[in-house]
Amino acid sequence: MRCPMFKPLFLAVTCAGLAACMPAEIKPINATVEPPSGWQAEQPPVPVVANWLVQLQDAQLQQLVSQALADNRGLAQRRLQVEQARQQLVISGAAQLPTLDLSSGASRAGSRSGAGRSTADSFSLDGRLSWQLDIWGQLDDQQRQAQLNLAAQQASLADAEQQLVRDLARGWYQLQEAQLLQALFEQRRSNLQENLSLVQARYQQGLNSALDIYLARNDLHAEQARISAQQQTVLQARRVVEQLLGSYPAGLLQAEGRLPLLDSAIPAGLPAGLVRRRPDLQASWLRLLAADAAVAIAQKDRFPAITLTSSLGSRSDALADLLQSGNLAWSLAGALSQSLFDGGRREALQAQRLAERQQLEQGYLDTVYQAFEQVENLLGNQSALQQQYGFYVQARDNAETAEALAFEQYQKGLANYTTVLESQRRAFDARTNVIRLRSQLLVNRVELYRALGGDFNPAAAATESENNA
């Protein structure tokens, strides 16, 4: 029997719901970036290399990168986050499809009377099909949000891979620097030991005072203390790399190589391509789009929801007769639900999602301009470090010449031992600065590759190294 009041009531509820949930106009995303036409460092527009790992010309580092990408635990966590986002996409897609539930039951009831006992069996089988109509596109928005979140997680994974390679290369060169400095300190200790022997021999011959012996011993003992501290620095540098490799940090890794000096051009490209290349900027943009989808979801959540349900059931006293046509009953129904008053909760939720999106807009813009700043600083650092390196090489050559002359004059009695010590200190400082500048040049170059969003391919790098060999 039809209810004559059903249709007017349905229309009234629908119209009232739509009127109550009509939102104010939502402004679109405003996150436009206009990059400059060139870098302030006035670098030539050399295209960013597709495989910057090859440019470092280090086969051992390339092997370590392959190991780290496979075994690093932090990267494994990022991959699992991607998998979670992928499953969330499946979940959001399932909401657009009908759901089918099936239930069955069996029971036995008994009674006792004067005539004796009696029992009755009952069996049931019920199926229920439910489907929410996506008339406003809310479910589409949920799936779009899940797709964007998955893409953002994949971009974050790519960014984490680049960060891992950057950290590994940085740690690798810092380990080489620490080992070279330790070797330099040990060489200086050997030279100071020879100096002490010479000073003692000259003192026994009456050619110098006891002060020279005390000065020589002071420098030798200070250098032995420096070596002890540097040995610990080397161990810590090894453990940093081993941790990145996913290995136990035993401090046993040996870094071959002597900090190569790269003279190839810096592949800076143009600022306009930075946003497209860097995966962290892509991830930030995708999260912003996902937040925009969340605003649409919150808006459409204020609209009425329409659900269709269908059921089919059977009841029988005998299991064999359960599926007989005479025992089947079915129903088909539609339902409309709309919240007419919720204390402003849904409206506040929509405003909250909009504020979150606007926050991400500002965060995205800030991230982009920070990326530009990072590249500009690294390009400037590269030029400044190259100039410093040239001056320090000249200073080292002059200091080594002065060291040899001072020691020669001391042996001839033309200079005192303090002059020898000062010349040796200057030569030692110059050698130390040259080693550290070579390391800084390499680290800055790796940082620049990372900041430019350049890609890497350890497998291709290893192949190219074998061909070059």
Give the low-pLDDT segments.
Answer: 1-13, 15-24, 460-469
Radius of gyration: 38 Å
Helical content band: 55-70%
Count of DSSP H/I helices: 11
Q: Strand fraction band?
A: 5-15%
For the largest beta-sheet, the strand count, sense and barrel status come to: 4 strands, antiparallel
Q: Averaging pLDDT over every residue, what do you get?
A: 84
Structural class, from helix and strand content?
alpha+beta
The succession of helices and strands, N to C, reads HHHHEEHHHHEEHHH
Spatial separation of the terminal alpha carbons = 89 Å
Quick take:
The protein is of the alpha+beta class and 469 residues long. 63% of the residues lie in helices and 12% in strands. A hairpin with a 2-residue loop joins strand 1 and strand 2.
Q: Could you characterize the architecture of this molecule?
A:
It is a single chain. With 469 residues, this protein is α+β, with helices and mostly antiparallel strands. Helix content is 63%, strand content 12%. α3 packs antiparallel against α11 (458-468), α5 packs antiparallel against α6 (210-244) and α8 (279-300) packs antiparallel against α9.
